[in-house]
Amino acid sequence: MNSSPSQHALRVFLVEDALAIRARMAARLGAIEGVEIVGEAEEPEAALAAIGASAADVVVLDLRLAGGTGLELLQHLAQRNSPVVAMVLTNHSGAWFRQACLTNGARYFFDKTSEFDLACHTIKRLAHAHSARDLYHLGAHHV
After folding, report:
1. Is residue 55 within 8 Å of 36, Cβ to Cβ?
2. What is the pLDDT of residues 31-78, one digit of tens each?
3. Is the keyword Signal in the record (predicted)?
4. Phi/psi at 64 (nearest 5 deg)?
5. Domains of the chain, earliest start first
6. 28-66 in b/e burial notation, b at 16+ Cβ within 10 A?
């Protein structure tokens, strides 16, 4: 997690069952300016509770999780009308998986092997937009 969290940072929650991959994701995404990693989980039930408690803006999740699936988590988030932006980052990137995730509330879907850099770029873009929106709401547009 970022050592210097900002009240204006894009708050990202990671849901991945493989500890080594989760650590890599946290290091890469947490190094992006304007991003704060606010929590991690390896299974859907724990993630669901922690996402709300962390006030996450974005959840980055895998489809294969301990004790369940990322698709289940997407469905639960949709049922709760959660405002969190869901980004799937998975090795299960076939057309069926992509369509199922997008149908169930994922805003973004990336192949973990070939599109990891694109996912990081997307988080960077979201962080920039989030920061600009915060500055606008604080009145910085009048400067």
Report:
1. no
2. 999 999 999 999 999 999 999 899 999 999 999 999 999 999 999 999
3. no
4. -95, 115
5. 10-138 (3.40.50.2300)
6. ebbebebbbbbbbbbbbebbbebbeebebbbbbbbbebe
pTM, two decimal places: 0.88
Token pair of 80, please? 């709760």
Q: pLDDT for 70-124, tens place per residue?
A: 999 999 999 999 899 999 999 998 999 999 999 999 999 999 999 999 999 999 9
Of 107, 99, 105, 104, the closest CA to residue 126 belongs to 107
Q: Give Rg (Cα) of the chain.
A: 15
Who's near 75: CB < 8 A, 6+ residues apart? 104, 105
